[in-house]
Structure formats: structure tokens, C-alpha cells
């Protein structure tokens, strides 16, 4: 997975990673928010979920201490990372801004 993860975050298209856990209540809320964000940004960005229990090494590598934690990568660079639940507008604007800066 680590090699695939590197390929994923090296994309020119922004990638939002949702570090989550299946047992986490707020993660379920964040997941439904991300469905709407995906509809809003379309092909501008990708949204990928990473289960911290299945991939603890990746979570540790990026300093994920709590879930949900969201991170935005582009061209292999970590551009933004925050823990907690975030709203549709904040995430949509964030991804649109990152995508537009690269064009």
C-alpha cells in the first residue's frame, strides 16, 4: 500500500486523504460530508479514504494522532492537514483553491 500511496499523492491533481476508523462516530459524519464535497469538486480533486487500523504505518508517517484527520496532497507535498470534522464548504473551497493554483 505504501508504494500505491506514494503514487497517489504524487498526482498533479489534488488528493484529499480521509484518515478514518470504522469504529469512529465522527468519521461516519465526515464520510457523508465528503460525498457531497466529491460531487462539488468533480474531477478537480480525488478523495481517498485510509483506514488507520488497516494502514497504521501510513497514518504514523503523517502524524495522524486522532480520527478523522484530513490531509491534502499535491505533487507529493502535504499542503494541509487537520483533525476533526470539517464542513462541505470549507473542504470544497480548499480543494478548488489548490486545484486552481496549479493551473
Automatic annotation (TrEMBL):
The keyword Transit peptide does not apply. Belongs to the thioredoxin family. Keywords: Disulfide bond, Electron transport, Redox-active center, Transport. PANTHER family: GEO12009P1. This is Thioredoxin. Residues 1-100 form the Thioredoxin domain. Pfam families: Thioredoxin. It comes from Kaistella montana. InterPro entries: Thioredoxin, Thioredoxin-like_sf, Thioredoxin_CS, Thioredoxin_domain.
